[in-house]
Design a protein that fits this description.
This protein is an all-beta fold. The protein is about 0% helix and about 50% strand. Strands 2, 4, 5, 6, 9, 10 and 11 form a seven-stranded mixed beta sheet that branches. A four-stranded antiparallel beta sheet has the order 1-3-8-7, with no helix packed on it.
Length: about 110
Amino acid sequence: VQLVESGGGLVQPGGSLRLSCAASGFIFSRFPMRWYRQAPGKERELVATIDASGGVTGYADFVKGRFTISRTNAENTMYLQMNSLKPEDTAVYYCNVITYETIWGQGTQVTVSS
């Protein structure tokens, strides 16, 4: 079972990024997925969730209206569209799934700075 994030980078405040999470080794379409983030010196926090079909999503208050989680089950991939980025969104972003165990990707760095 493997999760691989990509799409992070350096962006100016107000900008946008789209993160991807490529999954392998399990039946992707059967499991809810999550995005988390961890800023330096802080605990890892839940950002967004999506159910197995992609029809139900949930967001932390600090990203509501700015971030959109989605998935393409035919491609075993989950996404996080991030708009109106703020410096406080700077963190390593991780995707997560709980199958028979909890699986984390390696993370992708997002830096929001002018």
